[in-house]
């Protein structure tokens, strides 16, 4: 694992299009069923190479998140109307402990590590999504609703199956995409059962460089990507 390095501004990029430890970038998600960005999280690069992008989402980071037009958080809205009511985006902060996000090039999921206070490891979270698209300021994806939770004893379970079904019912995901997501989920389960990377790589023992500052949310967080690649 690689870490350390001085903090640099968002979107610097490095040799061969790779970022260096300490660079600050945006990790964003497009809205489902639309082209706009509805989640933007400034993060600090931990490692970036041909095999893995690892980033740190620090506690207190100012982010952008979706809400219903009346300000209601989506998870508080009944499922039957959660994806059909008008939405907007608002600034907020990432509270609680930080999150380490890991993504391998071309893979249709990322793996997030969560800790309890005091760095007591809690779980891995497999977020099924479009493979990350890289641009000069960060990475973009689209969330696919269905997820996996993986625990230190190597047990696991599906998450948000109800949201996955509702998204299909509301036309946010067609049959072909839904089957592709299910196949990605099955592939992720096989990695868990084999205890492959990144679960066996010791990332739960990683800690952020104490010299890293919390990244700032840029005013143009929703800008159109440049130099888009996968």
UniProtKB/TrEMBL annotation:
Domain DUF402: 76-196
Keywords: Hydrolase
Short name of any one Pfam family annotated for the protein: DUF402
Residue stretches in coiled coil: none
Gene3D superfamilies given in the database record: FomD-like (2.40.380.10)
InterPro entries hit by this protein: DUF402, FomD-like_sf, Ntdp-like
Protein name as it appears in the record: DUF402 domain-containing protein
Protein's organism: Streptomyces galilaeus
Organism lineage: Bacteria, Bacillati, Actinomycetota, Actinomycetes, Kitasatosporales
């Amino acid at each position: 694992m690689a870490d350390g390095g001085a903090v640099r501004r968002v979107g610097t990029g490095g040799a061969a299009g790779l970022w260096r430890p300490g660079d600050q970038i945006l990790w964003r998600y497009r809205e489902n069923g639309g082209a706009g960005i509805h989640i933007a999280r400034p993060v600090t690069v931990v490692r970036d190479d041909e095999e893995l992008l690892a980033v740190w989402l620090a506690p207190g980071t100012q982010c952008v998140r979706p809400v219903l037009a009346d300000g209601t958080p989506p998870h508080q809205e009944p499922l039957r109307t959660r994806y059909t009511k008008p939405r907007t985006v608002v600034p907020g902060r990432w509270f609680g402990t930080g999150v380490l996000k890991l993504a391998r090039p071309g893979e249709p999921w990322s793996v997030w590590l969560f800790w309890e206070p005091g760095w007591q490891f809690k779980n891995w979270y497999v977020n099924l999504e479009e493979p990350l698209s890289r641009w000069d300021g960060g990475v973009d994806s689209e969330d696919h609703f269905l997820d996996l939770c993986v625990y230190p004893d190597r047990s696991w379970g599906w998450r948000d199956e109800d949201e996955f079904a509702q998204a299909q019912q509301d036309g946010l995901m067609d049959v072909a995409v839904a089957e592709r997501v299910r196949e990605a989920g099955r592939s992720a389960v096989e990695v868990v059962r084999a205890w492959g990377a990144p679960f066996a790589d010791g990332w739960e023992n990683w800690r952020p460089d104490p010299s890293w500052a919390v990244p700032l949310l840029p005013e143009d967080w929703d800008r159109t990507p440049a130099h888009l690649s996968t």
